[in-house]
Amino acid sequence: MVDTEKIQSTALGIGIILIVGAVHLFDVFTRYYKGAINLYTWALFFALYAVIAYRLQQKYHDWKPILVCFILSALVMPLLYSLLAQYSAIAGIIMVFNPVWIIYLLFFHSEEYPWISTIYLLFWIMLLTFSFMPQIQEYAGQQGYTIPTISPAITIRYLVRATVDAAYHVWDTLVGIKETVEKEVERSIKIASGDYYTGQVDEGAKKMLGVFIEPLKAAHPTFYEGEPATVYSTLKAETMEDPLDIKLTCTADKITADQVIPKKEFKVYTTEEQAIDCIFKDLKAKSYVFKLAANFEFTTRAYKRVYLIEKDRLREYRREGIDPLADFPQKQTKTIYTAGPVMIGVGAGVETQPVGIAYTTVSEQGPTIGVTIDNAWIGELKKIEYLILLTPKGMEIDNINGIEVEATPCEELDEKDAEFCDDGVETAYLLPKKLLDQVNKEKDIVGFTFRAFTKITDFDDLMGEDPVSIRNIKVTTRYDYSYSTQRSITVEKQEATT
User: Band of the pLDDT at 249, cuts 50, 70, 90?
Assistant: First the structure.
């Protein structure tokens, strides 16, 4: 039979020990903190311990040990701690064993606390052990305690702070993982549908990307020999991807400016607008061509949307006078490229879409992809660093301008280019070095064209389930460019003085 009276007595005893323990911890965090003494705080705890003594006397009727506990808790121990605060190690040890009410209850009335005694002992042993940890000793020093110190207050504060910090760190990590997974899933979906690359290109096509310099101006209507000559302009730059490293050169004929203000090199992360002044200190009297040039590396991306259909189906549609693309009222057949110094044109072998693809289980010649790179600005296209061509899965490039090429894994591309590439849905090819060297031999590259001859290696992979398959042919090129502005100014001789 359940002993209801015993259960109630045990529950009451547990409640009492929890209350006196909470009061003790409150005391630790207030009256004992750095040994500070405050009359109102002392009066509060005197009253609290008096109430505890009264209630325990009513329950246990052993007034002598209760009176001793009251005197120790309310008066002696706090006073001793204050006197010994300068010896914080000793005072801390006293504090560890200071909760005399709990010691009294567990010693004189242990029958009501059959398992709390063990928990209590382990709790204080844990606090005492942790108090010696270097991290807690360092934290105690930061809080103004003398080192070394042993204090349950410091230990508890440190453990609570460390637990909260760890919880925040775990939460931030979980949130970061969630966001990363969401972004990667979104990116994978967009790559698979062609939207990630084309979306970036579409956005870049609407911006004023690149580096621009306004027409060069003279600081004075006339420059005179032997006096500083200053020309100035405004530089504007914008990029969507990698930061732009811009190097400025300022010359008068072949004479380099003595000073470029504010500096000769800029790093642009998004957008920048900066006034540029070039100062020439000792120009002879003659006519000069003053020139301010910005040299930088830039990336242009482009894509061509192609509509693919099985050849026999295309012939049937045309024989019956049916437009295969009638269900695509907003079809896009022009090449879209990001704004910048270079214009990219992409052709898919035929001028009129859709492109017919022969159904076969073996490799079959596919459309010839033509790519044209044109200098769209008045600056100098100095060098092509690389060019990447991406074809949809199932369509592979056999050779470019007669030079055999092999696919390049996406992970071997430049880090930023690899973000726009997925081996699962497309195949990447680098323009052969031999072709790049031929193009880069020109001092000023006006433009060039290459033709990539493809083969269909997997009809089903390329076409999918729809009668008309929409795929994208993508091109990325990285190049060195120089944009400049110039004007002719005559430096006059000084007028003779009499």
Answer: very high
Tell me: pLDDT of 462 over 80. yes
What value does the mean pLDDT of the chain take? 79
Domains by residue range for the chain, with CATH: 4-162 (no CATH), 210-295+485-492 (2.60.40.150), 299-478 (2.60.40)
pTM greater than 0.85: no
Angle at 214 between CA 213 and CA 218, to 5 degrees: 115
Closest to 309 measured CA to CA, from 326, 329, 324: 324
Nearest to 235 by CA among 262, 267, 213: 213
The two three-digit tokens of residue 175, written as one number: 């949130």
Indicate the range of 90-99, 216-225, 317-326, 439-448 predicted with least confidence.
90-99
HSE toward the beta carbon, residue 96, CA cutoff 13 A: 22
CA 184 to chain CA centroid, nearest Å: 14
**369/302 Cα distance (integer angstroms):** 14
pLDDT at 36 over 70: no
